[in-house]
């Protein structure tokens, strides 16, 4: 089904041009090929199916292009040059909406433009205000429901926005604890999600928009009950729930009472993470879980399964999904990819069963030159099994890989996960001769509530042990050279990097911290204002600065910089709203005061991660030189000599 919601959200050559790798010559691919903007991405289709759209570079920034179905050329309808467009959608057959922020501040503003590039206007261009899409109201061409924090920076109020006039009508005033809203199939605001007592969550409901919201279900924040979509009659809801179970299941709930009426699907190993609903057919079609490598699907609708099987036969060796459909769901945009390609987009005529390629995301990437991402598992010291991904340089296998330089790459979040598929950072590092290990340490999502809750108040502790155990597993397998191991990560992965070089100082030869947390006290003091209502919950998940002060002090790397011996590269966006620049500043200052080698890159026009292409290039050039120096012993003079 069409994904109408905007994403948030979500990081030179010092080796010879060729090296021998298990008797196979491997070309050193230009760095820019891995990290340049996609040729085309984010395809969408107009409700009537007559046009499709995509993002493509214009002056090194992603802008919107529109093309008539069957035509050979497209027109560019936006001209952004300061910042990539963060996301967009079709509002109706004639108009598109898009979002952008300023310098990475994540205060996304909403704009609109007609499909021919005319009548461009700002709907919520209010400095310091962030906009959300609540419901695109696909059945009503001139209206959408948005949320903004213009009244109070800490909370979002829902508005019905008239795209023709720009008028915004307040639908409900957020009392201060509402974190989300949900509409029914008629676009009526019926459900609200609240935080009560700081740590409990509550679902509120009303039959009509004239009524007041009333609480129907209150649970601990550790419980997850997520309404997905109303049943076709707008009376019940399909939801995922882990109440009374470890793994989230697909269930039917009566929103008027909060009572679970039926369990539709569950998996013994993984949480339910996806659900398909057809607006055209007005029925639930499928459900999915993300496994170690494959997406596990269960179908409720035979026609939907038949479409999937036809595509499966035409796209062997690829995972794929429907990115967008027209209103009738007869014309679809299909994305297909795997671990060795950034993927391709196709136009699929359902009735004719005709699949037509629209574009490769990165046609300059040759899959044959890319490395395989191998799903592996390893045990932790306390008896858990960690699912991980090991990428070896091209030409190596698990049997032949011995004593390689390795980059350990823990993911951000931390309540997120790594997945099997193409990763430009991993492919870049593999092409430079490094093995890369990514692991879904405890707290990673999709593995059930017990696995998630084992991470609470365990930053730098058992969470870090899971990473360390992965390193030791690689060494024990003979794959890693124990003297040539680096750790690199962004956001929480940046914290894990700092924790790694601080609390296991002899394990890593060097570390790269990308917008990472260094001090748990200051991190909790500088969160964005719209996270403030969830602060007590964060205290339960990370630690309370008063009650858990001893623990937070013990596991804040910046407070133990005297333990660090390994060289560090630190990268930070000056406008980062999630991990304040002070997190990097204090770590760098502490290391410089001790004479520890540290390189510091700050980009004044970036936030939580580098999005502008030229800044990405700078960062990865610095990464390449840093790793070559500290894992391979290569220097700029060696580069010149080569």
Q: Architecture of the domain at 387-633, according to CATH?
A: 3-Layer(aba) Sandwich
CATH topology of the domain at 387-633: Rossmann fold
Number of extended strands: 37
Radius of gyration: 25 Å
Biggest sheet features: 8 strands, mixed
Strand order of the largest sheet: 30-31-33-32-34-35-36-37
Q: What is shown here, in short?
A:
The chain is α+β, with helices and mostly antiparallel strands and 642 residues long. It contains 12 helices and 37 strands.
Textual characterization of the structure:
By secondary structure, the protein is an alpha+beta fold. Among the domains are: 301-361; 387-633, Rossmann fold (3-Layer(aba) Sandwich). It has twelve helices and 37 strands. Strands 30-31-33-32-34-35-36-37 form an eight-stranded mixed beta sheet, with helices on both faces. Strands 3-4-5-6 form a four-stranded antiparallel beta sheet, with no helix packed on it. The longest helix is centred in the last third of the chain and has 19 residues, at 613-631. The model is unreliable at 1-23 (pLDDT under 50).
């Amino acid at each position: 089904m069409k994904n109408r919601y905007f994403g948030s959200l979500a990081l030179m050559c010092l080796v010879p041009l060729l090296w021998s790798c298990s008797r196979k010559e491997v070309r050193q691919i230009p760095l820019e090929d891995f990290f340049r903007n996609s040729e085309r991405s984010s395809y969408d289709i107009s409700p009537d199916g007559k046009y499709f759209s995509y993002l493509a570079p214009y002056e090194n920034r992603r802008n919107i292009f529109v093309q008539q179905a069957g035509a050979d050329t497209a027109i560019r309808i936006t001209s952004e040059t300061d910042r990539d467009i963060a996301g967009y959608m079709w509002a109706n057959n004639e108009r598109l909406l898009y979002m952008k922020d300023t310098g990475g501040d994540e205060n996304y503003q909403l704009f609109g433009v007609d499909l021919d590039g005319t009548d461009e206007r700002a709907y919520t261009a209010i400095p310091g205000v962030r906009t959300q899409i609540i419901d695109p109201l696909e059945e009503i061409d001139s209206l959408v429901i948005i949320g903004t924090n213009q009244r109070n920076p800490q909370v979002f109020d829902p508005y019905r926005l008239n795209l023709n006039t720009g008028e915004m009508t307040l639908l409900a005033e957020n009392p201060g604890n509402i974190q989300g809203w949900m509409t029914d199939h008629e676009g009526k605001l019926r459900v609200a999600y609240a935080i009560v007592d700081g740590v409990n969550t509550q679902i509120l409901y009303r039959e009509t928009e004239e009524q007041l919201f009333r609480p129907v279900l209150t649970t601990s924040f550790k419980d997850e009950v997520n309404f997905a979509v109303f049943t076709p009659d707008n009376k019940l809801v399909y939801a995922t729930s882990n109440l009374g179970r470890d793994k989230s299941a697909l269930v039917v709930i009566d929103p008027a009472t909060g009572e679970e009426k039926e369990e539709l699907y569950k998996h013994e190993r993984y949480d339910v993470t996806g659900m398909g609903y057809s607006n055209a057919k007005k029925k639930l079609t499928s459900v999915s879980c993300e496994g170690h490598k494959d997406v596990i699907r269960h179908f409720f609708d035979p026609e939907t399964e038949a479409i999937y099987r036809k595509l499966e036969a035409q796209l062997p060796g690829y995972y794929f999904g429907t990115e967008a459909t027209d209103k009738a769901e007869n014309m679809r945009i299909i994305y297909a990819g795997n671990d060795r390609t950034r993927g391709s987009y196709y136009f699929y005529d359902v009735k004719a069963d005709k699949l037509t390629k629209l574009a490769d995301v990165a046609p300059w990437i040759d899959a044959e030159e890319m490395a395989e991402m191998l799903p592996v598992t390893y045990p932790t010291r306390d008896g858990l099994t960690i699912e991980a991904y090991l990428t070896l340089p091209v030409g190596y296998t698990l049997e032949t890989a011995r004593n390689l330089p390795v980059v350990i790459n823990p993911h951000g979040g931390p309540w997120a996960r790594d997945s099997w598929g193409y990763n430009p950072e991993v492919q870049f590092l593999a092409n430079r001769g490094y093995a890369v290990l990514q692991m879904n340490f405890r707290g990673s999502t999709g593995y059930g509530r017990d696995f998630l809750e084992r991470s609470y108040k365990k930053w730098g502790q058992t969470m870090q042990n899971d990473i360390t155990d992965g390193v030791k597993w690689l060494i024990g397998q003979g794959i890693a050279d124990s003297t040539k191991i680096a750790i690199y990560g962004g956001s929480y992965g940046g914290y894990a990097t700092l924790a790694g070089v601080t609390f296991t100082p002899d394990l890593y030869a060097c570390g790269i911290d990308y917008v990472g947390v260094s001090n748990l006290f200051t991190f909790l003091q500088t969160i964005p204002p719209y996270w403030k209502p969830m602060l007590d919950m964060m205290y339960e998940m990370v630690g309370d600065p008063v009650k858990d002060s001893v623990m937070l002090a013990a596991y804040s790397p910046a407070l133990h910089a005297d333990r660090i011996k390994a060289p560090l590269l630190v990268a930070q966006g000056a406008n980062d709203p999630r991990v304040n620049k002070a997190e990097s500043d204090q770590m760098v200052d502490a290391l410089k005061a001790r004479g520890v080698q540290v390189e510091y890159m700050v980009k004044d026009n970036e936030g939580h991660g580098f999005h502008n292409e030229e800044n990405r290039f700078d960062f990865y050039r610095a990464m390449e030189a840093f790793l070559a120096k500290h894992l391979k012993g290569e220097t700029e003079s060696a580069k010149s000599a080569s």
